[in-house]
């Protein structure tokens, strides 16, 4: 007898669907995480198509995003409808803002887009999401906690993990939008960082519009995350580009 798949949900920031940043990122990762359509990835000097696919496998699985509330399973007795209602209410209270332009950065062995300057508005949004949605989160399984604790967390990060289910929150939060999995070879990672700065160049000169948050969902541990719905700040949910079937998944 097999276990029933347990969906997971996450509250993420995603750039506007019509933005240059969104289009470039979807192409780089090779998957439109709203339609789940596979896309042709760009060609880069010194990289085969297979190498690019391998480098982007992990972020492609999660979909392009910046984490606000990390993936979680719904707490017992909590419905997806209630989560939707909370997202709409939360978004309605937020004010749109512009975050600083992005830059391509190395975060350890990973490459990601990060803010070029601190943003108190982004820090406040992330902190509010972590705290306001925590009542919807089931406690993590013991093996998930052990996996996290085995990754060299600081004492404060361990405390945050136990409190909020994720170690990189509140003062430990760093806005980033992951572009690669871990790349072991420093020289190739540095070369790719330069190449990606050129590829994303047209989108790196503009401030980042933050006027909505998104609900991402994953039907099972093996499945990819999909952007299920966008929730505009100060108003009703934005169009979800036809993903009503995914949005109706129940826990």
Describe the 3D structure.
The protein is an alpha+beta fold and 251 residues long. It has one domain: Alpha-Beta Complex (Cyclic Phosphodiesterase, Chain: A). It has nine helices and eleven strands. The protein has helices spanning 20-29, 49-55, 57-62, 80-92, 120-132, 142-149, 155-164, 186-199, 244-247; strands at 8-13, 31-32, 37-38, 66-72, 97-99, 102-107, 110-115, 176-178, 208-210, 212-218, 226-232. The protein has a four-stranded antiparallel β-sheet with strand order 4-1-10-11. A three-stranded antiparallel β-sheet has the order 6-7-8, covered by helices on one side. A two-stranded antiparallel ribbon has the order 2-3. The chain is globular and about 50 Å long. The protein starts with 7 loop residues before the first strand and ends with a helix. Mean pLDDT is 91; it is low at 239-251.
């Amino acid at each position: 007898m097999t276990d029933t798949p347990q969906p997971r949900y996450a509250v993420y920031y995603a750039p506007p669907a019509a933005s240059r940043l969104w289009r470039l990122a979807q192409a780089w990762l090779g998957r439109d995480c709203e339609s789940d359509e596979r896309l042709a990835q760009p060609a880069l000097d010194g990289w085969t198509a297979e190498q690019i696919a391998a480098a982007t496998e992990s972020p492609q699985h999660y979909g392009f995003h910046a984490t606000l509330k990390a993936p979680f399973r719904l707490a017992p007795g909590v419905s997806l409808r209630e989560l939707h209602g909370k997202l709409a209410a939360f978004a309605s209270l937020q004010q749109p803002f512009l975050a600083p332009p992005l830059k391509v950065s190395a975060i350890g062995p990973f490459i990601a887009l990060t803010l070029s300057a601190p943003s108190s508005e982004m820090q406040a949004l992330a902190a509010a999401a972590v705290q306001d949605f925590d009542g919807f989160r089931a406690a993590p399984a013991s093996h998930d906690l052990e996996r996290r604790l085995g990754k060299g967390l600081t004492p404060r990060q361990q405390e945050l993990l136990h409190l909020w289910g994720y170690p990189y929150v509140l003062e430990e939060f760093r806005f980033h939008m992951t572009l690669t999995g871990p790349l072991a070879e420093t020289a190739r990672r540095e070369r790719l960082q330069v190449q990606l700065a050129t590829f994303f160049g047209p989108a790196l000169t503009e401030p980042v519009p933050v006027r909505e948050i998104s609900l991402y969902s994953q039907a099972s541990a093996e499945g990819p995350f999909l952007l299920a719905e966008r929730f505009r700040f100060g108003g009703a949910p934005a169009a979800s580009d036809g993903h009503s079937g995914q949005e109706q998944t129940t826990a």
